Amino acid sequence: MLLNNTITAMKEPSFVLDETDLLILEHMAQDANVSFKQLAESLKVDQRTIAKRISEMKQNGVLKTKIEIDWPRLGLGIATYVGAETGLGEKDVAKLQEYIRKEPRITEAYSTIGGQEYFFKVVETDLQSLRDVLLPFEPITSKLTSSIISSNIKEHDDVTLLHFLRQRGFSRKKKKTTPG
Fold first, then answer.
1. pLDDT digits (tens, 9 = 90+) for 91-116
2. 89: left (phi over 0), alpha (psi -120 to 50) or beta
3. What is the pLDDT of residues 66-89, one digit of tens each?
4. Pairing assessment for the beta strands 106-111 and 118-124 based on DSSP bridges
5. Complete domains list, the chain, with CATH
6. What is the 8-class DSSP label of residue 20?
7. Full 3-state SS string of 90-131
8. pTM of the model
9. Which of 99, 100, 111, 105 has the alpha carbon at shortest distance from 79?
């Protein structure tokens, strides 16, 4: 399954962005609450164009609406990245994946190519509680490593990446579809 996902990631994109799409995404990444009217004025296009483009990007899975929660402000101040290797057989892989999916304090998880087979993020209130999350991994992993985040060097930054892609000429001209 991992290989199929990797191969899919290397194919041509299923949705082709043009300059206007990239600009819309860049503005929305800066301010998720920006109105269609504000976008239209800023990009010098009609509001209907903005609405249509955003709708297309949502329908094609390019643009997703989600909130970002500041867990430390809610008391979950310990964030840890954990790497795991199994090497113990398919039953243990299934147990590992089931535990990862069911454990609510694991907020993201990935199957990877590289030094660790699995990589995931855990948030908790304190070190003892973090230990309680990690303890069940011991019998179903051959190697488990963890790194507690001590400071943030760079926030998640879609704006800068979108700007870079636009400057690099990442966008393409959209093909007009003709009925036929």
1. 888 888 999 999 999 999 999 888 88
2. left
3. 888 888 899 999 999 999 888 777
4. antiparallel
5. 2-67 (1.10.10.10), 71-148 (3.30.70.920)
6. H
7. HHHHHHHHHHHHHCCCEEEEEECCCCCCEEEEEEECCHHHHH
8. 0.74
9. 105
